[in-house]
Structure formats: structure tokens, C-alpha cells
TrEMBL record:
Name this protein carries in UniProt: ATP-NAD kinase
PANTHER family given in the database record: NAD KINASE, NADH KINASE POS5, MITOCHONDRIAL
Coiled coil recorded as keyword: no
GO biological process: NAD+ metabolic process; NADP+ biosynthetic process
């Protein structure tokens, strides 16, 4: 049964006016190296001084910073208005997993020197970015998530007894794991049998996840503002099994074939979660709860609001973060000419 899920993927403003700024912040960070510790201390000091009434929360971990309140995910947890992450892309994926049963608050992500597709701000810019959010000037891009559920051979019991669908931001990968044998996987789309895949596995990704594992397996690069599911085979035993892109209204089921010689592992956003035996299946569809990520391009320099557009692109606040990322991070369509020659050709 397919479920139609409608999203507004255009960038939209958050906190429409400064009269309703965030009252609670959840701080999510990677392991506390010295740069992370200093970044957290500076950020907390700024929030405490500039917005003294705001409550700051943190997961219950041994390295919890001083001056914050403990927060645990769940239906009874304190309502969070803004998530602030410090780390890499994996930190944002972890933040997404903390809201596995419902809506995700807007996410403001800061890089700690690493590169990633989900890291629009450097930690040095935290004061300007936070101020823009509290003043209602920031915009967000709703990044689609996947909702995943499991069925055993009887199609009515989930392995491990889970009653809530898993929410995935990048991808769900069904793979042969350590087995030397290929998996045999029956693929169904909206209940209709699409194909029997004999391969190392299959990846179903969001547009955001199209630049992660799916890209390494030969999948297409999809703009995150699109609403779609990307199906990418992993080392298929066929020259004609090519990646496919489905609308977000589709429901995709991957069933381990009865003739499969091995069980299959399931990884979600890089985390191993399940083992499926022959006859077990996994169903994936669009989640109604996307991840609202705050755009760097929406933070315009107030000191120079009328700066002319750059000669090589759009003006401040108008550029597409994703276009910048595929050029800077993937070196999209880069030629064999050296960077020095490219710089020389522009002068």
C-alpha cells in the first residue's frame, strides 16, 4: 500500500518574526576533542549572554558540558525548538535519529574543520548564524527522511518486536555483509514485483543520501529539494540493472528470496540494525517527518546588504548551498587541468 506524502521543499522562513524565537536548544556534538570543547564553551557563553532566558539541553553522556540540562529522547521529553550540532555529517545523522518518532526541530549545523554536504556553517560563524535564527532571518530546506519497517516470513511481525518505523536521513542499505555469497532480493514497488536482484545488495536513499553510499555504488546525484526515492544496486550480477528514481509516494519492499544462500544485513545511515533471513522483508517509503536544515545562503551579511553579485555566481543570500557543495566537495566535472592552471585561466 503506497502512502502519498506531500512536502514543501522550497526554502521557507522559520520563526516568522523575532517575537517567537527559540526557547530551548538541544546541543549535539561529536566526541569532545579540544576544538569541540572550546567551540561549545564559546557557543554556550554567547547564548547565555545574548539570550539569557533560553534553556540549553544535551544528551545524557559522560562528557556532558557544564551549565546545560540533560535531555533524553522520547514522547515525554522536553520540547526542543532548535537543534545545534557541532561535528561532521555523522553528527547531523545522529541528531536526526534522536527524533525517530516524530517531527525534527530546525537544525543549525556547524563544521569543526571537516567537510560535508550537511555542514553549511563553520564554528567561527556561530554568533552570526545564531543571531540570524533568533531574529527570524534564516530559512530552511526540508530534507526528506525514509520510514522503514520490517516483516518476517509471515509478514506480520517485526524482528526484535519494534512497533515504530525507523526514520532514516541518508539511506537504508541491504547487503550481504561478511557472507561470501550474493543475496537474492525480490524488489516490489507499490506491491508490484519489479525484479529479482542477485547482487551484493541494494541501497534505497533520499536525495540527501544520493551523495553518500549510493553515489559510491554508481547512483545518480539528486538535488535535496526534490521528493524522491533512489534505488541503487550494489555490484549486481547483471549489466542491465541500473539505478532507478521513484516518486516519494512510492512504497518499496525488499524481500530476501527463498533461494538466497545467505542472510542479509541492514544498515541505516551507517548503523547496522537488522539481519534479514530468507523470507524476511523490509519496506521503505517517505517519512512524513523531514529534517529542516538551516541554509547558509539565507544568512546575508547585514554590513554589506547591497553588495553586487559575485562575477562567478549569485549575490549574497541567493546562491544554492548544494551547487557550491558539489563543486567544492565532489569537484564535479573537474578536468585534468591542475588548479594552478585553472586559477591562471581566470586572470
Amino acid at each position: 500500500m503506497s502512502v502519498l506524502v506531500a512536502f514543501e521543499f522550497d526554502t521557507i522562513s522559520i520563526y516568522a518574526d523575532a517575537k517567537s524565537p527559540p526557547k530551548t536548544i538541544l546541543l549535539v556534538n561529536k566526541l569532545r576533542t579540544e576544538p569541540v570543547i572550546k567551540g561549545i564553551e564559546a557557543l554556550l557563553a554567547f547564548v547565555s549572554k545574548a539570550y539569557p532566558g533560553v534553556r540549553v539541553f544535551h544528551e545524557d553522556r559522560p562528557d556532558i558540558p557544564q551549565g546545560v540540562e540533560v535531555w533524553e529522547p522520547g514522547a515525554a521529553s522536553e520540547k526542543i525548538d532548535l537543534v545545534v550540532t557541532l561535528g561532521g555529517d555523522g553528527t547531523i545523522l545522529h541528531a536526526s535519529s534522536l527524533f525517530n518518532t516524530g517531527a525534527v526541530p530546525p537544525v543549525l549545523s556547524f563544521s569543526m574543520g571537516t567537510l560535508g554536504f550537511l555542514l553549511p556553517f563553520h564554528i567561527d560563524d556561530f554568533a552570526k548564524a545564531i543571531t540570524s535564527v533568533f531574529e527570524g532571518k534564516a530559512t530552511i530546506l526540508n530534507r526528506m527522511r525514509l520510514s522503514c519497517s520490517f516483516q518476517d516470513q509471515e509478514r506480520n511481525v517485526t524482528p526484535g518486536g519494534e512497533t515504530t518505523a525507523w526514520q532514516v536521513m541518508n539511506e537504508v542499505a541491504l547487503h550481504r555483509g561478511s557472507s561470501p555469497h550474493l543475496n537474492t532480493i525480490d524488489i516490489f514497488v507499490d506491491g508490484q514485483h519489479l525484479t529479482e536482484a542477485v547482487s551484493d545488495g541494494v541501497i534505497i536513499s533520499t536525495p540527501t543520501g544520493s551523495t553518500a553510499y549510493s553515489l559510491s555504488a554508481g547512483g545518480p546525484i539528486v538535488h535535496p529539494s526534490l521528493s524522491a526515492l533512489v534505488l541503487t544496486p550494489i555490484c549486481p550480477r547483471s549489466l542491465s540493472f541500473r539505478p532507478l528514481v521513484f516518486p516519494s509516494s512510492s512504497s518499496i519492499t525488499l524481500r530476501i528470496g527463498d533461494r538466497s544462500r545467505a542472510a542479509a544485513g541492514v544498515s541505516m545511515d551507517g548503523r547496522v540494525s537488522h539481519v534479514l533471513n530468507p523470507g524476511d522483508s523490509l519496506t521503505v517509503q517517505a517519512s512524513p517527518f523531514p529534517v529542516p536544515c538551516i541554509n547558509r545562503s539565507s544568512i546575508v551579511d547585514d554590513e554589506h546588504p547591497e553588495d553586487p553579485p559575485d562575477a562567478e555566481g549569485a549575490g549574497p543570500g541567493k546562491e544554492d548551498d548544494w551547487v557550491r557543495d558539489i563543486n567544492n566537495l565532489l569537484q564535479y566535472n573537474a578536468t585534468f587541468r591542475s588548479k594552478a592552471l585553472l586559477r591562471h585561466s581566470r586572470t
